[in-house]
């Protein structure tokens, strides 16, 4: 899934560079719907939503970023700290909340991410 998500983000970034924000938005919207339909593995859905939120941030659509973060919060709240990708997803969520001007939420996600990394790496 990591390679697929990197490919998605690269596609979105290239569309934005070409000035095709509407195409990038359509691609993100389709992938958001696919992630919501998939729904069986929370950590993979969280990782997909993470990339999608980063894509919308690159477009500058802050309202959609905030909406996706609300969905992501529900997904990550149900995940155990041992899940793959969770520390990275939480770190990105903290960064996105900081960029949205929500420092208290940002700190919450940074702290959980750091706790996971401390458990894993010491």
UniProtKB/TrEMBL annotation:
It comes from the Eukaryota. This is MalT-like TPR region domain-containing protein. InterPro entries: TPR-like_helical_dom_sf.
